[in-house]
Structures
1.
Amino acid sequence: MLAESGVQPVKVTTEKVGEAQVALNVEVDPATFEDARRKVYRRLVGSIRIPGFRPGKAPIYVVERFVGREAFLEEALNDLAPRILQQVQETEGLDILARSAVEVAQLEPLTIRMVVQVRPKVELGNYRSIRLERPVAAVTDEEVDQRLEDLRRRYATLEPVDRPAEAGDRVVADITGWVGDEEFVRREDYELTAGEDSAIFPPGFGQQLIGRARGETVEFALTYPDDFQVGQLAGKEARFRVTVNDIKVERLPELDDEFARTVEGEFETLDQLREHIRSELLRQKEEQAENEYRRQVLEAVIAGANVEIPPVMVEQQVERMVEDLADRLAQMRLNLVQYLRGTGRTEEQLREEFRPQARRILLEQLVLDAVAEAEGIEVTEEELRTEAEDIGGQAGEARDQVMEFFTQGAGREHLVNIIRRRRALERLVEIAASPEPPTETEPTEGSGDDEGNQSA
């Protein structure tokens, strides 16, 4: 294999310099380096014109001097680096994902230095010893009453009143807002609730409406919070002019059997509606409790694991997240530039915000991949086909294209990863909820992999 790569055996020393990063100091065999120099020479000599020499006839030392010894050396080492890395992967057992630029550590003997990022290995710890109590979901009478009250408000009617606005009234108003001399908002017949905050206006806006009468115009200033969702308004003081056009009060229906019959669904009595609400609340709370339990189990497994994630994998995940955001924006007929301008951020700031989330996603994926390997979890063709059919069934006319995507190539690998990780988490939940202690010694180390490089 070394002969095939054209590289004579080299002397290599390794040094860990960061998460899943290794510095390689490689002493290059003189004959190997000379071969690389001559390859660069043959590549350059025919494409450059050197005074005093016919094209392609200048000797190697002249070409080297003409392009610059440092540039010539860099070209030769970059040509040689992939072949050296192939040998290092075989001799040192490193699965290299990316490398830095080649640096010359010393000339005699020629020694080069590269920092490589390697595929991480996951040390799981004793995950089979984890035991967590499963929560029991329950619904209180107060929660049922609150849901009934929410329903009453949904079915409420609004009636105009001839008095100043009180807390809870619906106020219809024309609103104009400025930051400095620049107008940033104008709304006509905009409806708000007096005394309550609004998503697009600063805290306290709703309070300013209390006591205002129909036809009254008021001006006031408020400050947006520093963490406001629209970056260009965050922390800014804004002036507003509000003209009240109408004031309405909510009229809630009586809570009785007649009300129950008006609600969507076939309910004859208020008691039937109450029981339906209770069962729906219980279903929702059980689902929330189960999701939270799964999160706690995974968190406990991660806490006991040792995972180093190379920067290149984080950046690849960040890139996927940026692309996903761009796709979602495109569905709303927006683009990333417009989004960044509207939120007052640069693309690099967005990427920096994404990095912790990207790292967390990779951490969960790597741990679940290692659990799947340790537990011998494999995805069957039947599972894959069923999952693809479920996804395809939601795609309407694009069903066939979706099915084709998820049953071959990268789409298939992506779906295999999803199923395998889901089953790994189900296995972890089964272990954590079991009353019995572990009866066998489990593997504690598995090899992690990033999405798209797994096999079924």
2.
Amino acid sequence: MRKTAVIIMLLLLSASVHAEELAGIDILRSIQEAFTSVAAEVSPAVVYIEVKSETDKRMSFFFGPWGFEPPPEQEGAGSGFIIDPEGYIVTNAHVVAKAKEIKVTLADERSFGAELIGMDPDSDLALIRIQDARDLPVARLGDSDRVRVGEWALAIGSPFGLQQTVTAGIISATGRTNMGLANYEDFIQTDASINPGNSGGPLVNLDGEVIGVNSAIRSGSDWMSKPYNVGIGFAIPINMARRVIADLREKGGVVRGWLGVSIQNVTDEMARAMNLKENKGALVAEVLPGSPAEKSGFEVGDVVLEMNGTRVKDANELKNRVALLVPGERVEFLVNREGRQSRIDVTIGERPSDLTAYYEKERRAESRAVASLGLEVQNVDPQLAKEMGLDKEEGVIITRVLRGSPAEKAGLRSRDVIVQFDRREVKSADELEKMAERVVEGEPVLVLVWRDGRTTFLVIEK
């Protein structure tokens, strides 16, 4: 009887183990089925992009001395995916930058020439189009805001020219910033294998929806210095891409909202020094002249805590959120200013295409020329004093030094603050101009300037 009971128990245990094994296999088969279904649905909309671009003429410097000429064209390749039956294809800006000729090969091996509709280097996105193509499959776009760490993800593209390659992994992280890959960053990180040639292809979820545009990898390199994947890939969230793609399609370029401030993260040390409860928000380091921020009353040292009632985590988040706004839109900011919270209403402007040129233009608009010295200066106001860490709200800052001028020969630079001229304190641009007029030609004059946190003497001759 006891022996029979033992045999029955062993049989039941064996059956239980076998059932668990079958259940495990069923789970694996369901995952496998999900992968194959997604690949079958999305792959037809994924394309292989070949690019021919003109060789940089500066390369002839390296080839010329030996009697050789650089090849007239360079070739590159990447991936993309169709988003519209009319032939619109999303890819990376770096894939098609400087393209002279673009060739697109579909999953069914049809090939077409493509035109560049527009690209946005700031986000590394581009839109191209093929025409006269019928029955085009289209990739479905998902919601990248709902992506969670640990979810399955598939990357589809043409690594090393191997078309229609599908790799699988998980979402490793979201919101990756400060990678130095683009001006606007909010990357999804994945360990799905991404390699050179995958750029511009889709990162998709198990519902077959595109959640990101594969853009870059953190790579190692082999003995021939060729990059390879080490399990760290980055994709541009599709929600960020939607706005860019829409602008590229409608306008050929991207219109971004603009506040007009230079911002930085709040460190633990800064939070303690400013008596903040936490190191959250974005610290205003500069307010650009003529900007929406200046017109609305922003000041250097303000810490932006909220935008339209939603907390601001850090500087990168604020930059991305402002960029997505429509110029002319009214926005309310909550800021901490010297321990007190206040609200600032701003009418968002349009981000200048060249911020450096804008900055110089605005600075010069407030500058005045000291022609005899060959420079332009601006009075130091409270904002400039705070921005540059000056003890006094007086003196003049150099905004421009003319080539070949006495100022350039003396070693004066843009953004130097002139503290003394000919051993006399300089309080304004007017004073400096009068002092310069009294200098005898050929006579050396001592100039004391504040530069990079310290003062130094220079000698100038008219």
3.
Amino acid sequence: SRPVVDYSVVGREPDSSFSESEPSRLEEGTDQYLYDTSGLWRRAADMDIGGTDQSSEMSIGLPDTDYCSEVLSSGEIVGLSQAMEKLELKSNSESELNPDAFGFVISTFFRIAMFLSNLSKANLPKLSASSILSASRAFSASALSRSSNETVGFVGLGNMGAHMARNLLKKTEKNLIVYDINSAATSNFSSNLPVSSDRVKVASSLADLASSSKVIITMLPESAHVKSAYSSDTGLLKGLKADTICIDSSTIDTSVSVEISSIIEKRGSIPFDAPVSGGVMGAEAGTLTFMVGSRSQEEFESAKQILQHMGKNIVYCGKLGSGQTVKICNNMLLGCSMLASAEAMNLGVKLGVDPKLLASIINTSSGRCWSTQISNPYPNVVPNAPSNNDYNGGFGTKLMLKDLDLSINAAKATNSPVVLTSVASQIYRAAANRSDLANKDFSSILKFISNQ
């Protein structure tokens, strides 16, 4: 039987619009009542799920009663997470998904709560605004990742981006709309597609790309390029729609990344910083490591559903900006290790040791690292390394310098000593000033230190 309503708890009886048969709507400036697990009706504000300061963000509509009854009949719904799981299954099976499902989910849960209030075994958890918001974000974000034919916008078709975009085409059924400020890069990409050209469109502008995309991935060289891509007169923000997943895989300053994410959030979209490691070879093979910063673990899962088609290791690093922090620390170490590897290989060869023998011993000993084993700077040691292709097609020397500068700036801000990195940056800076090395793979630092 229905519990007795103790109106003394709420301070006054509900007004005439209130019905004990269903939850009342949350409306700004009014005392609204919702059923609590203790068997009492309480004001929404007292339950920390509404009130005048939050109700403008919550518009609770009442869903289909028959469907709620159908869900209820299973006897499995005991809380918000299970209710949402059922609703996700329904949306998935019928392919009638509204990504902006916040009000629908919450109102459905309280409708189910009303039915369950008549059951003696009802055991509903008390909810807070933060738990509802977190759950709704998870629902909305996971919902966005389900559609197999959604359009993905890809910005930046350079050495890395072009391979990443091709892997998306090869490994999914998604359509792509692409943009690069360099028309030659766009033409090259369009003429070397692994699938039918019907699935690829070249955007006339970044705003055009944004207005056509459910997911946007940016892969650009520097902080200024990312800021411009979003904020220019014809930038992404001009066409950005609410609930768009925005993934930035550029390696940029952490503070700039957080700034861009904040702008995206204010537009009602979902930001991620997801820089990569693995180089051009990893991008082509689809084995990149993505270091992801996001607002929550739940939202990270939605990005992972996309990134897994371009990489092998998709790692949740924490809050927004964390992915960029991990990346600059990794590249700081990589720049130093490549320089040390080049010095070791150069010294050994000058002392008369065969470079392949030297590398093979290093790679079975304690000096082994990525720079000696995967991308050895000495030519004719590792077959697929850039050094075997006149240092073409890899990660440019000037880009490595940029990343070292990012790490040094972060070190200054946190008063962290980076002595080796500071020395390495000066050597890369001198190499980047040579026109024949600036755009070559950074392993070409061997040519610089050996006076070639």
4.
Amino acid sequence: MKTNLYILIAFLMEIGMLVGCSADGIPEKRDEVLPDGLTYIRFGVEAASDQGADENTLHNLTVLQFDLDESVTDVTEQDKSLCVTARYLRNPEPETDADGGAKGYYLIGLKASTKDTQYLVFIANTGSMFQDYKGTLGDFKALTIPFDQKTNNGENQLMLGAGYVPVKGVDDEQTHPVILKRLVAQIHFNYTKKLEVTEARFTPISLRLRNVPKVLKYADGITEATDYPEKTSENFTDYTSIIDKIEEGFTWYIPQNVRTAAADGSYDDDFRTYVELSGIYEAPNMQDQLVTYKFYPGKDDHYNVSRNYSYEMLPVVGGVNSFDANVSTRNLTVSPSANCFVVAPEAGSEVTFDPHDSPGTDVAGTEIVYADQVIENQYSRIADVRPVWQTAENLIDVIFADGLVRVVPNAKGIDGNALIAAYATDNTTILWSWHIWVTPYAKVLDGTGTNGIYTPRQIAIIIRMSGWIVTWAP
């Protein structure tokens, strides 16, 4: 029995020697006699990003070894290759000499192969997500990462590098260079004002990134795309508006959006990523204008937004340029915030309001704070505003754009009621709602009408006879 126990312990020690790894992914046994099947490879790992981006810190590093030789050129066969080793470096530090000086390379234990080369993928800043990865190269390339402007920032940039390296069963003293590149593009936007009209003012109300690819694929860091993602509405989204601190600028990190020329040689498809800045322009002797500017980060490169690039956008707002196709304007009157609005069913009667402004004082004891319902930090939580119900078909039309809600009633004299609501990004959660009363007496109620003056009692009779639903506020 005792002899069998010694044999078992010896066997377990040998297994531990073969597979045991330190927290940094390097075999624990580090002397001149290497464990069978393992070999040390030296890598000079550095992060590189074009156009001066500086988010290059390696918080952690994972190395995936795929049993794939460089001689295999068929992509289908390449994608069948299995991952035979996964090494996770929690806090990667280069090797040091006896005096503590950095040697400029990382020493990583990989599985020796009889093939000339092995395909290695280096992934920075994904945490321990892949430390036990056992899938194929094709499986890895198909993995996606959902993106959101609130969670993807410059603090922990995802970077990737890949290439073929000989992994033999002997010590390799050559240092193999590895260049890590960001899987995303950086778009930094910060405008300045230089208004051409004396005493004019521009007040920003919404800053938004539009036509953004929804997800990122790890394959983006392995293969160079020429037309990606596919230009369909299912693959793109518009980020919700930034409504606070707009004048301080903002930086987004997004997946690449690249394209090839259309049949007519143009690159101006409907899915070009752009920054939309909206605000109120006020100038003497003219009605207030809602002005919206479009800025394209990849305009000088066929509107492509490429991974590992930084796009510095520093436009100057000079005023309302009606000759610029990327500038749109309309006359604007913003109504004070409320929970109920009254409009007349006739041409030219509409109401525009800012859904981010509180319609009143929060009711104590309800634990509902209006600002928390529609705003998160500097971001709008509102993805859309649309009717929940209306008492007649096409009673009203609702447009949510430029950070404002615009309610346009029918012009056919049809009266009734509607409920409109602000929806979150999941397109189902209602954040807040407003009642819209469509009545020919709208101008009488707000004091601008000419068809007589009605007492509150007469208005109440009209409401009862018409069957309208109205919520009165004190």
